[in-house]
Amino acid sequence: MASSLKFLCILGMTLLVGAVVDGAGECGRSSPDNEAMKLAPCAGAAQDANAAVPGGCCAQIKRFSQNPKCLCAVLLSDTAKASGVQPEVALTIPKRCNFANRPVGYKCGPYTLP
């Protein structure tokens, strides 16, 4: 009986850990829509290619630039679209922040990171 209970506990933990790992998406455990909420400082720069990019925006984008798949998912998310983000403009932000190690040429849906 004790060994059966131990087996069930181990099986349950294995399934739980497997579900968490399988649940990871482009941005890890957080959804692109949740991550897009953190880009509020980028609102103006994501709508106007001539707008200055605030330092707070560059700091947030730098985090995403390490993971281009997440960056694309965030900038193309429903939350970003509902906020008025223009993807073709938003994708220029890493360049406008002068990031040397940005993912140049990365395909982001129908767009390419400059």
TrEMBL record:
Question: Where does the Bifunctional inhibitor/plant lipid transfer protein/seed storage helical domain lie?
Answer: 33-104
Q: Does the keyword Signal apply?
A: yes
Asked whether the keyword Signal is assigned, the reply is yes
| Record protein name field | Lipid-transfer protein DIR1
Q: Which residues form the signal peptide?
A: 1-19
Keyword vocabulary terms for this entry: Signal
